[in-house]
Write a structure and sequence with these properties.
Blueprint: E1 11-13, H1 16-25, E2 30-35, H2 41-53, E3 56-61, H3 81-90, E4 95-97, H4 101-104, H5 122-126, H6 130-145, E5 149-153, H7 157-169, E6 175-179, H8 199-204, H9 206-220, H10 226-238, E7 243-251, E8 266-274, E9 278-285
Parallel strand pairs: 1-4, 2-3, 2-5, 3-4, 5-6
Antiparallel strand pairs: 7-8, 8-9
The chain binds adenosine monophosphate.
Adenosine monophosphate is lined by residues 35-36, 42-43, 45-46, 152-153, 155-156, 179, 181-182, 189-192.
């Protein structure tokens, strides 16, 4: 490791020891943005928020094998290290943690972090074992980086709630901050997986945001019957020939319990397969989008 000039040179830590050494020299407070790379404006919005609220910024790039199921796209997950590093450098990131899978998951590792309850439904039900992988890797990254604050996207609403719950339940000494979903100009939520969409599918994918706007409109017009809102969303999505609904949910914003009637706020979330990729999106009714 060379001499450190943290004010104007981005450092790359490819081992846990290197990260810990760099961490000791970072001015407090430290903001942290965990990612799986193939960065887009959604990720960069988290980095900018971390930059604005902290003296130092650490981002990690790690495609975490334990959160992918056997039929998921772990091997095919898009990667572009060079472009990621250039984008993070342009945002004045101080340290990039890019750990080796063999160091993150030694063959004899046998400990997991599990958040019960909140992980039962939605992505937890659709992807068994997914959240165990997410909470385990995020807890490990928190232990390695020791951030003051960490930043997650509302795009993955259940993930953000699960991480907040983990941090609270396990007395982790950091703040978990959730940032708004960044969208393409036509409304599609940005995602690393959008790269899988061919031009026809890219057009069809707009139906996710359109159906959420329909839910918002019905709610604004006074509709409180969750079943009715979900039916209308389903009808709209089914008119899109390339779409296959995985689930549509209207749930309590803190417990994720499915709602019949919307009393206060609600999290409307959906997953729709458009061609190969499963696309996720959500909106909060009765609160900030
Ligand atoms: P990923 O690389 O997919 O694991 O995402 C890393 C972080 O970026 C997570 O906290 C995501 O919720 C967040 N993120 C992904 N897409 C968006 C988006 N369109 N807007 C805001 N945050 C996002």
């Amino acid at each position: 490791m060379g001499q450190l000039h943290l004010s104007n040179t981005m450092q790359i830590a490819s081992s846990i020891a290197e990260m810990r050494e760099l961490r000791r020299q970072l001015p407090e407070p430290v903001g942290f943005v965990p990612t799986m790379g193939f960065l887009h404006e959604g990720h960069l919005s988290l980095v900018r928020r971390a930059r604005a609220e902290n003296k130092s910024v650490v981002a990690s790039i790690f495609v975490n094998p334990t959160q992918f199921g056997p039929n998921d796209d772990f091997e095919a997950y898009p990667r572009d290290e060079e472009r990621d590093l250039a984008q993070l450098e342009a945002e004045n990131t101080d340290v990039i943690l890019m750990p080796q899978p063999s160091e993150m998951y030694p063959v004899d590792a046998s400990s997991w972090v599990v958040v019960e309850g909140l992980t039962d439904g939605l992505e937890g039900a659709a992807r068994p074992g997914h959240f165990r992988g997410v909470t385990t890797i995020v807890a490990k990254l928190f232990n390695i980086v020791e951030p003051t604050r960490s930043y997650f996207g509302q795009k993955d609403a259940q993930q953000a709630l699960v991480i907040q719950k983990m941090a609270k339940d396990l007395n982790m000494n950091l703040e978990v901050i959730v940032c708004p979903t960044v969208r393409e100009p036509d409304g599609l939520a940005m995602s690393s997986r959008n790269v899988y969409l061919n031009p026809d599918e890219r057009r069809s994918a707009l139906v996710l945001n359109e159906s959420l706007k329909l839910a918002q409109q019905l709610f604004d017009d006074g509709e409180r019957d969750a079943g009715l809102i979900k039916r209308k969303m389903r009808e709209m999505i089914e008119r899109e020939p390339k779409s296959e609904i995985d689930y549509i949910s209207i749930a309590d914003t803190s417990t994720l319990a499915e709602l019949d009637r919307i009393e206060d706020g609600a999290l409307v979330s959906l997953v729709v397969k458009i061609g190969k990729p499963r696309l996720l999106d959500n909106v909060i009714l009765g609160g900030p989008a």
